[in-house]
Amino acid sequence: MYDNEVKSILFAGVGGQGILRASDIICEVIMEAGFDVKKSEVHGMAQRGGCVTSHVRYGKKVFSPLAETGSIQTLVSFEKMEALRYLKLLRSDAEIIVNSEEIYPPAINMGDMPYPDKAIDFLKKNYKKVISFNAAELAQKAGNIKTANVVMLGALSNLMQIDKSIWENVIKKSFPEKLIKINLEAFQMGINA
């Protein structure tokens, strides 16, 4: 990272997927690594399965929590249809991490519109680096489906130059004692994904 370059990450998904918790954890990781960090989040209808986003920007000095349209370097999408919703915000060379899990919004459940098939194929055709896996399945293997957000953080850690020990220390501080081991396992599964 250049001395004055600010990196932008967009977390996107639906309510209940742990997006805000994940963005809190990554902000703590970034601060522990010595960077300035700003965060902004939108969670209007999150309680009803609506869209949730969190912008995280970091660098030597960050003045705004929101990136300009077309300037986000990394998209972490907790649901594959949500990845499609925010493409206009990404740089053409953006890196995308996408959970292949499908969570149908009400319009699709009611039959008003189809779920977009081949979303990941579209992303891979149009973006150079797309990492896709089912975070819920990996979280289940770790022992708790609720750790899918930490699986996603594990995958994201591969794209950032922040020492793994910082990530692990923040994860340990972010959860009660009884949940630390399972979240560290989920984090490692994301790294391996």
What is the CATH third-level topology name of the domain at 7-137? Pyruvate-ferredoxin Oxidoreductase, domain 3
The N- and C-terminal alpha carbons lie at a distance of 24 Å
Low-confidence stretches: none
What is the CATH superfamily label of the domain at 7-137? Pyruvate-ferredoxin oxidoreductase, PFOR, domain III
Named CATH architecture of the domain at 7-137: 3-Layer(aba) Sandwich
Order of helices and strands: EHEEEHEHHEHHHH
Strand order of the largest sheet: 2-3-1-4-5-6
Based on CA inertia axes, which overall geometry fits? globular
- Helix share bin: 25-40%
Radius of gyration: 16 Å
Q: What's the overall average pLDDT, rounded?
A: 91
CATH class membership of the domain at 7-137: Alpha Beta
* Main pleated-sheet profile: 6 strands, mixed
How many DSSP H or I helices? 8
- Report the structural category: alpha/beta
What fraction of residues sit in β-strands? 15-25%
Tally the beta strands: 6
Which characteristics define this entry?
23% strand, 40% helix, 193 residues, alpha/beta
Structure description:
By secondary structure, this protein is α/β, with parallel strands linked by helices. The protein is built from eight helices and six strands. A hairpin with an 8-residue loop joins strand 2 (36-42) and strand 3 (51-59). The radius of gyration is 16 Å and the shape is globular.
